[in-house]
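User: Can you help me understand a structure? I only have the sequence.
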Amino acid sequence: MKESRTPRPEGGNDGHPEGRQTRRAAVRRFIPLAVLLLGLVLFFALGFDRYLSFQALHDHHEWLRAQVRDNALLAPLAFIAVYALATAFSVPGGAILTIVGGFLFGIWLGTVYVVIGATLGSIGVFLAARTALHDVLQAKAGRAMKRMEEGFREHALSYLLFLRLVPIFPFWLVNLVPALLGVPLGVYVLGTVLGIIPGSFVYASVGNGLGALLERGETPNLGVIFDPEILLPILGLSLLSLLPIVYKRWRKGRSGASN
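Assistant: Let's start by predicting it. Here is the structure, written out as tokens:
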């Protein structure tokens, strides 16, 4: 008697092609985030962190200024690229890089180059995190998480400006949260650009006077942004960014009371 065999599905022991494609797509979406994490690991493993210090700046500041003087076009592009990569890899030391920008290019151009580099790097983190994690969190999110996401997206620009302006929130964390809560890319970019200008300008101003400090063997105060004359105006701006939310809730409360 001939033994009957159940035909195997296409694709052999690995199951249906659709299943394999789904698994491959799930793996692929984590690749950009894995690359950024690998960049952070390599930054420390290769010892690049020693170059992101005031001692390194003291040792090489004349060479850096010579590069800026001799390469008027390439120097800003190189600085923006370095800043973008440092931001994308979530490397600590953004304040030092911003001071370097002010030192090399002056207050205004330094601020512009910092904002461009930081925004480009932030976009990289945002897209990588949204691709890898947003759908996973959506699938597992409960009602509370969904309500929080809806509230954040409704006032995304105001919340993002607040998070960017207040200097106590880590920059890398503010890069991730909007991606996980479904904020549109355009709103994210606008909130990032507007939100980082004040802090970037403060540290670029510090960098503009760095030459005299280096000659005296001193280092700038990274806590300058917490001085009351600087911190209070920034906090004022952050509170102003929440006014649209307060106004909308006030209008909603009035219309509810009238009904």
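Now, to help you interpret it: The chain has 13 helices and no strands. Residues 123 and 185 are 8 Å apart (CA to CA). Let me know which part you'd like to focus on.
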